Amino acid sequence: MSGQSSVGNSGVYEAGDQRNPKQSELHDATRFEEGKEHSHQANDSKDQRSIANRLAAEERKSDEEDPQTKALKEDPTLAAKMHGNEPSKGAKIDAEIQQEEEEYLKRKGKA
User: Fold this and answer.
1) Residues 19, 22, 27, CA angle at the centre, nearest 5°?
2) Which stretches are tagged as biased composition: Basic and acidic residues (predicted)?
3) What is the maximum alpha-carbon separation in the chain?
4) Mean pLDDT over the full length of the chain
5) Average pLDDT of span 3-7
C-alpha cells in the first residue's frame, strides 16, 4: 500500500479539526462567559429541564409581576384609557362585575 486511503480526500485527514485541544484551552474561564443572558427560553420544546424546574420558574415569574400588570388586573378598563380610547363593552362589564363583587365582599365582611 502506498499510504493512500480510498475513503475521502486528504482534506478529511487534516489535523485542524481532529486534534484534541490543549489543557490550557480547556480550563480557560472565558469560554464559560460566552453565553448570552436570558438566552434560555422557557417554552423551548427541546429543553431538558424537569417539570419541577419548569413549575418553579413559572412561580418565580408570576411573583415578579410588574406594577402595570397589577394595575391592569385591578381595573380592566385601564389599558384602553391609557391609550386614549374608550374601553370596550366587555371591559366595562368586567369592571362592573368586579365592583359588585367587592361591594358584596365588604357587606359580607361587615355582617
Assistant:
1) 135
2) 16-49, 56-76, 83-95
3) 102
4) 76
5) 62
Distances (CA, A) of 68 to 29, 55, 73: 40, 24, 9
pLDDT confidence bin for 1, thresholds 50/70/90: very low
**pLDDT, tens digit, 9 for 90 and up, residues 40-67:** 676 776 677 788 887 887 888 766 767 7
Q: Which three cell numbers stand for residue 90?
A: 366587555
Residue with cell 499510504: 3
Q: Are 74 and 94 in contact (CB under 8 A)?
A: no
User: Grid coordinates in use for 103?
Assistant: 361591594
- Give yes or no for residue 93 having a pLDDT over 80: yes
Round to whole Å and give the CA distance between 19 and 2: 24
CA-based end-to-end distance of the chain: 102
The span from the CA of 38 to the CA of 40, in Å, is 5
Place of cell 365582611: 109
